[in-house]
Structure formats: structure tokens, C-alpha cells
Amino acid sequence: MSERRVTDGELETMSVIFKMLSDQTRLRILLALHNRELCVAHLCEALAMEQSAVSHQLRNLKAARLIKNRKDGKNVYYSLDDEHVLHVIDQVLEHVRH
């Protein structure tokens, strides 16, 4: 295995992402957004959670650049920022099931 060179900034960013992935609610949100975008109301319904709790987690995920949003009138729709995070989740799930 070759040595990986990682900068301090990259380590910090990786740490933030792993922190985001360490919470079941945030994982459930990320999985719910797989291949689709949802508004907060639909996420609340899918997760059976209050709007304030979901909104709080969405702010965290957006700050970590794991999700993005777009406005359509009064509604805000959320989606994954890119598919990379799903690859990480899939790898961990594969490890868990192994």
C-alpha cells in the first residue's frame, strides 16, 4: 500500500464529514435524499420528526457541503451535493454486513 499524503486541512474536512456521518438522523436524511430532492415537510414525514429537528440537521449537512438546496417559491428543496457521500455510506454498509 502506498503512503497517502494528507494535508492538515484535508484531515480537518474529513473529520467534519465523519462527524456528520456518525449521527443516525443525518444518515437517514442522506439516505432519503438518494436520487431525489425533498422539501423539509417531506423529509419530516419520511423521518417522522419535527421540522425544527430536521432543519437543524439540514443546516449541519449543508455546512459540511454534503447537501445543497434550491428555492422554488416558498419551498426549499434539498438534495445530495454529489454522489461521493453515498459511496462512503455504501462502503461502511458493506463492511457492516460482511
From TrEMBL:
Keywords: DNA-binding, Transcription, Transcription regulation. SUPFAM superfamilies: Winged helix' DNA-binding domain. One of its GO terms (molecular function) is DNA binding. It holds the Pfam family HTH_5. CDD domains: HTH_ARSR (cd00090). Residues 6-98 form the HTH arsR-type domain. The keyword Transferase does not apply. InterPro entries: ArsR-like_HTH (IPR011991), HTH_ArsR_DNA-bd_dom (IPR001845), Metal_resp_trans_reg (IPR051011), WH-like_DNA-bd_sf (IPR036388), WH_DNA-bd_sf (IPR036390). NCBIfam families: HTH_metalloreg (NF033788). This is Putative HTH-type transcriptional repressor CzrA.
